[in-house]
Amino acid sequence: MTSNNITENKSNLTFEEIIAELEKITMQLEQGTMPLNQAVETYTSGIELKNIAEQQLKNAYIKLQSVQESREISQFRERFANLLGSFQEEVIKSLDKKSTIDNAKEMTSKFLENLIGLYELYIKSIN
């Protein structure tokens, strides 16, 4: 790929192509045989490529972070649904057994403790 093609198509390059081009630019500049104007243009092109590569890395990081957060949210929802389902089953059983208010309070307290524990785990996992 020539320098003119690189200049025209920088935003269409893959990360790997940008790295390869930056390596070429580095070697050309290290040789020290370019006229000053061409060296400045080449250096400027390299900076532009570096900026594009950095943006691609940032975008990849954001995408990976989003996937990770989505997975963690799904796990939290699943655990919450299981916890809520268990609580509902206990409430129904207690109604059938005609449990006391104290039993109901204890069940609710246990549910809330488990819910808080689940929430704390979720918060730790996203930080």
UniProtKB/TrEMBL annotation:
Reactions catalysed according to its record: Exonucleolytic cleavage in either 5'- to 3'- or 3'- to 5'-direction to yield nucleoside 5'-phosphates
Enzyme Commission (EC) number: 3.1.11.6
Compartment annotation: Cytoplasm
Predominant location category: cytoplasm
Enzyme class: hydrolase
GO cellular component: cytosol; exodeoxyribonuclease VII complex
Molecular function per GO: exodeoxyribonuclease VII activity
GO biological process, alphabetically ordered: DNA catabolic process
Keywords: Cytoplasm, Exonuclease, Hydrolase, Nuclease
Family: Belongs to the XseB family.
The protein's assembly and partners: Heterooligomer composed of large and small subunits.
HAMAP family assigned: Exonuc_7_S (MF_00337)
Functional note: Bidirectionally degrades single-stranded DNA into large acid-insoluble oligonucleotides, which are then degraded further into small acid-soluble oligonucleotides.
Entries under PANTHER family matching the protein: EXODEOXYRIBONUCLEASE 7 SMALL SUBUNIT
Protein name: Exodeoxyribonuclease 7 small subunit
Source organism of this protein record: Candidatus Cytomitobacter primus
Primary gene name: xseB
